[in-house]
Amino acid sequence: MASAGLQFFAFILALLGVLGAITATLLPNWKVNADVGSNIITAITQMQGLWMDCTWYSTGMFSCTLKYSVLSLPVYIQAARTTMVLSCILSAFGICISTVGMKCTKLGGDRDTKSYTSSAGGVCLILAGIFELVPTSWYTREIISNFMDRTVPESSKNEPGGAVYIGFISAGLLFIAGVIFCTTCFKKQQGAWIYPTKQQQFPATQQENSAGYNLKDYV
């Protein structure tokens, strides 16, 4: 019951992690620049994402432009696009595999097969968390280095947006869920290794007793 409860808890964490990864991939506020002029009417907020750049005006108008050219983008944005998409695919695939290997489901065959399936799903979730953590950290490093550069004008400096924080949180959730699935599988295998050794002790004692009786018969 404890392992089944842990697996269900890991499934909830993985589900939240997948939703967070998809949300962070699609949101346009990876990079935010708030440029407030002397007049409140001219106040604008510029947001840059992986797929589009958006501008929000204080008057309520909101406009976005898609990034069609891939080669014109910086390397870290190209890498972030690729790894975030891979993270979403791996996390969704890991949830499907882990659902089959969960103890509370009737899918996946016998106990050993479900254990290996749960472990495979956990590995996919761990890889998905790593694939999401790497581009998020790289993107944040670029923002901070640009912000600390004195040669960059104040109007061109940016700060991390909400999508970056969502990426960090969802990466942590996916990693924790994957570790839990792999840990429950390891506990099952460890129990399978211990109990057969205890059962094999009885035939050995029986052989010793039978050998002892044979020696007494000869004496």
Q: Any overview of this molecule?
A:
- By secondary structure, the protein is α+β, with helices and mostly antiparallel strands.
- The chain contains five helices and five strands.
- It has helices at 2-26, 75-101, 111-148, 162-199, 201-218, and strands at residues 31-35, 44-48, 52-57, 62-66, 159-160.
- It has a five-stranded antiparallel sheet.
- A hairpin with a 3-residue loop joins strand 2 and strand 3.
- Helix 1 runs antiparallel to helix 2 (75-101), helix 1 packs antiparallel against helix 4 (162-199) and helix 2 packs antiparallel against helix 3.
- It is elongated, with a radius of gyration of 28 Å.
- The termini are far apart.
- Mean pLDDT is 80; it is low at 191-202 and 204-208.
- One of its GO terms (cellular component) is Golgi apparatus.
- The chain crosses the membrane at residues 75-100, 120-139, 163-186.
- It holds the Pfam family PMP22_Claudin.
Record keyword descriptors for this entry:
219 residues, single chain, 5 helices, 5 strands, elongated, five-stranded antiparallel sheet, alpha+beta
